[in-house]
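Protocol step 4 of 5: obtain the predicted structure for the target chain.
Materials: sequence only (see below). No template structures provided, no constraints applied. The aim of this step is simply to have a reference model before the mutagenesis design in step 5. Sequence pasted as it appears in the construct record:
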Amino acid sequence: MTAGLMGVSELSDCVVVGGGIIGLLSARELAAAGARVRLVEMAGVGRASSWAGGGILSPLYPWRYPDAVTELARWSQGGYEDLAVRLRDEGGVDPEWTRSGMLMVDTSDRATGEDWAGRFGYRLDELAGEALRRCEPALRVGDGTALWMPEVAQVRNPRLVQAARNSLLRQGVVIEEESEVTELLARGGRIAGVRTARGEIGADVVVVAAGAWSGRLLAGLGIVPDIRPVRGQMLLFKGAPGVVSRIILGPRHYVIPRRDGRVLVGSTMEEVGFDAGTTEAARDELLEAAFRLVPALRSFGRERHWAGLRPGSPSGVPYIGKHPQVAGLFINSGHFRNGVVMAPASARLLADSVLGRVPILDPAPYAVSGRGVQR
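Step 4 output (structure tokens):
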């Protein structure tokens, strides 16, 4: 055994590094299978990308991503409503799963979208004129058209992560917040645990689900996943319920209505390293996009402006599975803009890999081997 947390000698079956929705649901899957799990988070659970995003349960213009992203999203979408109910009942917080539908006003690649929808069994309609106005009266329609996916839902992601956190505590998962993992401990080609500022935690299995920080943490262990931080800034408006009822995607930005009348507008895409600050330029960009898509937002009060760091990866396909050079080390990271929608499937696929079960999906597209960078 190694010296454990706060000098106490102990050996955990599994340590999950990272308290975003990917880490939370990974810990939940492993705990449900009987593992003793400790989740270690450098700040507060769910306070990074999982909190900062919009909670849309679909990739944006989903046909623009590789099929591997669709496969994870589709598996997750099939059970998300039930998951939200279970987390509400177990965690005492309602994630507010809501089927809003998603309107996409950029129809430049409609044929590609229709082909994608046919292959994967999604409903995708083209709306124009009065039909489009009836679908979302708040949208500035003009003479344009939009693509409509009526089955798309959303969750209120800060409530989702809070419910998941509470559910894990109820399951007996130990959660260590404000405890940064500074080193992965590997001995003789096998994981031995992690080191934090409070001491070492021994573990037979370590899962790195640290979002944008995953690549940095894995540096020095040979093959490293190509994960980088990509900043996204958001605005929150406070208005009356029902003024906006659909998720609306413009060419580069989106509008998301919440049940209580709040409306989110996002998001920028900025390669600025680990800088999570906000800027006036981004605020102005988001305001312009918001008013262009939904003029009624001009009368809404602006409540908040924030930024988060997404875990960018090549083509947005996450890394899920075992590390090719360190036994007992697993990775579940690199979900880019789609961590919330892909989280349930990613967590299940990760647990399948850890536990040696038959995987829910072909794991090959998500493997670290062949996709990582040698360092």
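Step 4 remarks: The two ends are 30 Å apart (CA to CA). The chain has two domains: 5-50+159-224+315-374, 98-151+228-313.
Proceed to step 5.
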